[in-house]
Amino acid sequence: MAATKTPVLRCQHLGIQFGGLKAVDDFNLEIGESELVGLIGPNGAGKTTVFNLITGVYKPTEGSFYLNGVQMNGKKTHKIVHAGIARTFQNIRLFKKMTVIDNVKAAMLRELHYGMPQAILRTPKFWREEQAITERAKQLLAVVHLQGKENLEADNLPYGEQRRLEIARALATDMKLLLLDEPAAGMNPTETEELLEIIDYIRDEFKISVLLIEHDMSLVMKICERIQVLDFGTTIAAGTPEEVANSPKVIEAYLGKDNEVVEGI
Amino acid sequence: MTLSLFIQSLINGLNQGAIYALIALGYTMVYGIIRMINFAHGDFIMIGSYTLFYTIPLMVNAGMPAWLAVVAAVAVCAVLGILVETFAYRPVRKAGSMSALITALAMSIFLQNLAMVLFGAKPHNVQAIFSLPTITVGGVSLPLNVLLTIAIGVVIMLGMQIFVKGTKLGKAMRAVPQDKDASTLMGINVNRIITLTFCIGSSLAAVAALMYCATYPRVTTDMGSMMGMKAFIAAVLGGIGIIPGAMIGGILVGLIEIFVKLFAPGWYEAVTYGTLIVILLVKPSGILGKNTGEKV
Amino acid sequence: MTKQRKIAYLLNAVGVVVIFALLMALFAAGVFGTSTTYIQGICTTACYTVIMVASLNLVVGFMGEFSLGHAGFVSVGAYVSAIVSGALAGKGLSDLGLFLVAILAGGLAAGIMGVLVGIPALRLRGDYLAIVTMAFAEIIRVCFCNFSITGGGKTLSGILKLSTFPRAFWVMVVCVTFMYMFVRSKFGRTVQAIREDYIAASAAGINVTFYKVLTFAVSSFFAGIGGAIYAHYMTAMIPTNFNFNYSAELLSEVIIGGTGSLTGSIIGAVFLSALPEAMRQFATYRMLCYSVVLVLVMLFRPGGIFGRWEFSLTRVLGRLTHRRETAKKGA
After folding, report:
1. What is the pTM of this model?
2. Tell me, what's the ipTM?
3. Among C107-116, C155-164, C267-276, which range has the highest average pLDDT?
4. Which chains touch A (3 or more CB pairs under 8 A)?
């Protein structure tokens, strides 16, 4: 039975309507184990909406999606996270007034089994479990090169480090599929380079798959094994970076409305 | 329940509702523009009522109709509204909603206790404002001043709606809550618009005071907070920030109060609050409110 | 548990015992003369107010939502405990036993009420949640006004005077310790994450609704305990005691003390329950001053006097010994 592997993520005809507007229509995607797939498209193409669908922020009005063969649509966000999909946000959403390490620990709730009486009475189980997640949180922070910054307030980190902290928080949920929403936005070339190293490392170390939204085309072309292009909610191209780059539809979508590719400057 | 009792209660309910609606209008306008629950609004009514209490005898002695005292009440309340906004609310506006809420609560406590110091704790009786006869139609007695109250309420509501939708100032008032910075760029003096809103809101409180005193001629220092609470509920029920919402909410609360009082006098408040809870759970931003989810 | 932690706990325990011993010694020595009972009463008031304010701070400070209906949960605790102690009086329980059973019953009833109110209400946020909590508290009040078992709108009197100062003090210590431990565990961390960003919290695998309702229920539980001590100290009460003004007062004490600081709640509650008594001669001006102080705090310290700062005896002692050591080195 193990001959054909079920893909980590499978989206089938996924779609959502807001009022009369089809924000995403007939979205199909398969991501295998340890694969890195890019999702690109002009502004307002529906990329973040796809993320919101897969993470349960919105409920799909059409189609369905599966994580390791288990149907996930209609489930609450936190259940989907428990099943193994974690994400970062386009406009960073950290727990700003909490320390860096608490940001990561907050995502490790499932590793803490102590109940309220144990917490209040500070039983050995409490200390043991808290100790364990503190250790793991430190390791994860080291993975994203944030060691030594554990006790800073998250809000005080520079922009690039905040983005990396979001990745550490996502890793803390112990997921199989990581959704990165424009992780390199606003980063300078050195920071972007560092981020790419981290993404590579995570993929090898934790054996996870990554779905990545990115505006920086050169970055996407460089690291993604496959790319899917959205425009007006529909897929206009999918394939290897070369195939996508040569697709007339993609060229039209991008060059036809040249200004839209440039965002947030 | 006989038909005449029903009609009687309906009219009483509308009367009560018109008063609530007018007060709710004040809450709604202020909330609409700065997203703050102005807890002191009810106390503006109390101040307005005390002004009426003191000025009506002067009016009557001068040979003028008693209701002209409302001019004095409007002036006092408008000035008070501007003062409260400028000295208490404006400085904390940037500090966040929690600070604004507490400041509003503090202003409410302040005004009530100031009134206690100035006017004493004893209730006062206001002289009759409208000396209109009561007519009886088919076993239903209709005090004309009740009808007049309803009429005043409806006229003011329509006037406000036209003002906000039709005039340039009204447009500015609608623009400010959308985006303060953009409004400033468009040449709107945001602080002036907010002060104006408070001024109008508290003037409405003075009119509400007149309507209230015409029906229940008794003033106490805590009358405002009790009435204000129900009117506020009315504003939220209808959809806070929306003028027709205040009207619908006010009349709904007035009718519920009068009709429930007929059957279970002790429970009318619980029914009003219960209605609020149910409506908010079904429509989280009130009957006419638009649901705006947070963008992810 | 490390040795350092053990020392810290021991130090705090010693600190609390010292404060208690000091107060008891002052009362016993008759320093206050004829007003000893009166001062003791103020201290008892301060104890239950601390519990109420600190419990409200769980919701306001740590969960970041307004509650304008805390008095509702206080009243549930007060009435239920009064009924329980009335029913169990003379059934062979000692006074202390009766007191403990009554406050526990009050707390549990309020906690259950917290779950019942929290499940529907916590779907809303911000101002709307504040309004709905207020509405629920008013409904609770109206119920107590109409039920005959709670006095039917008249004063319910003849409640046993079980809340002595030592009992109130130790219950307060236990309650505040529990709340502190709650906040400094996964529960506090989770609920603070929800406060910071509920969307990110759910994306981090947190069941937002569950933890909100849980915190609300814990807060209500302690509010109920506060109410129970109140009932057995006052011995008579009427539902209007627990109206909106009382909720607003508790909320403003939280805010003045500092949202998210239990230290602030304790000092705020002690200060504000002692202040009105100290200013009794100026009763009319008292609330006037109170409101002005409130506005001034909002103007100059929007986060409350203590902000999120927590007092730590270990830290203070650590600093003292450190200073002495450096002084020695310098000499």
Report:
1. 0.90
2. 0.89
3. C107-116
4. B, C
